[in-house]
UniProtKB/TrEMBL annotation:
Active site: 228
Listed transmembrane segments: none
Protein name: Gluconolactonase
Cofactors that this protein relies on: Zn(2+)
Keywords: Metal-binding, Zinc
Organism this protein belongs to: Antricoccus suffuscus
Length: 314
């Protein structure tokens, strides 16, 4: 078990950490409906009120933060820990938003893809061409539920299209360091899938019979676990945050488990995201959502530098 420090507490189900060039870290708070800034000394301030349920975030080519907003999730408590799920009474649909870090101005970029409403956008990643991939987890009332989808869109609001469908709760999304592979983690199946990227928004799978969304199977653990979001190391390893057994599964691009990093912070069962920062990209920031914390730890390997990671306005 690696050691870590607690950088911030009191967050309301934080997800989607993004490290800014100056060392601040942004998170979204699902149950607060905010984009929130955390300084290196642990100071917490709200950048923008985005409403709904902000679930994932990424820096875009224009310096704005793009948010995958699931439209909101119900807050519930089990054993003293906070969780998120279901459909809240004020749900009005999902969206992709953009936030100006200087002014806090929030713009809604997409609410639909053609005639198809966005149901529960979850996580987002930009490619080198300036477009972005995002997962739509969908919504469930506990009896019936949506099948998940993947989308590719441009930040100018001019183009969005579905590129995969029929998935079981697609959650985390990431690109290999060379941009040649797209990775997606599914929550309840605890499976990781991948596709070859043949061009901006062009993906090819089909190497696994019946693969979710047509994807290629990469990894699933033998034990019961729920996967959440993911990050990618500079080496190409895929790091998937997990609930039930809280920690990070480090998976090689060949599908082998490199290691499992157990993370115990007051028994929090909801480790949901990982990202990296620092001069050597070996400082990991991890969200412990069920106790409302942002953790910081030294990571043994550097994370991959994300596209447009230096584009943020101050």
């Amino acid at each position: 078990m690696m050691t870590f420090s607690v950088l911030a507490t009191g967050l309301m189900f934080p997800e989607g950490p993004v490290v800014l060039p100056g060392g601040d870290v942004l998170v979204v708070e699902i149950h607060r409906g905010t984009l929130t800034r955390i300084t290196p000394d642990g100071g917490v301030s709200v950048v923008a009120e985005v409403g709904g349920g902000p679930n994932g975030a990424a820096l875009g080519p224009d310096g704005r933060i793009y948010i995958a907003n699931c439209g909101g999730l119900q807050r519930f408590e089990v054993g003293g820990y906070i969780f998120a799920g279901g459909i809240p009474e004020d749900y009005e649909g999902g969206s992709i938003q953009a936030v100006d870090l200087g002014t806090g101005e929030v713009e809604t970029i997409y609410k639909t893809a053609g005639d198809v409403p966005l149901r529960g956008p979850n996580d987002i990643v930009f490619d080198a061409a300036g477009g972005f991939y995002f997962t739509d987890y969908g919504k469930s009332d506990g009896v019936t539920g949506d099948r998940g989808r993947l989308y590719y869109a441009t930040p100018d609001g001019a183009s969005i299209r579905m590129i995969a469908a029929g998935m079981e709760g697609p959650n985390g999304i990431g690109l290999s360091p060379d941009g040649a592979r797209l990775y997606v983690s599914e929550t309840m199946t605890a499976r990781v899938w991948w596709w070859d990227v043949t061009g901006p928004g062009q993906i090819t799978g089909g190497k696994s019979l019946g693969g979710s969304g047509g994807g290629n199977f990469l990894y699933s653990p033998s034990e019961f676990i729920n996967f959440d979001s993911l990050g990618v190391e500079a080496s190409g390893n895929v790091c998937v945050a997990s609930m039930v057994r809280p920690g990070i599964s480090v998976i090689g691009p060949d599908g082998d488990l490199v290691e499992f990093v157990d993370i115990d912070t007051d028994g929090d069962p909801g480790i949901t995201n990982i990202c990296w920062g620092g001069k050597d990209m070996k400082t990991a920031y991890i969200t412990a959502s069920s106790t409302g914390k942002l953790l910081k730890m030294d990571w043994p390997r550097p994370g991959a530098l994300l596209n447009f990671a230096s584009e943020a306005s101050k």
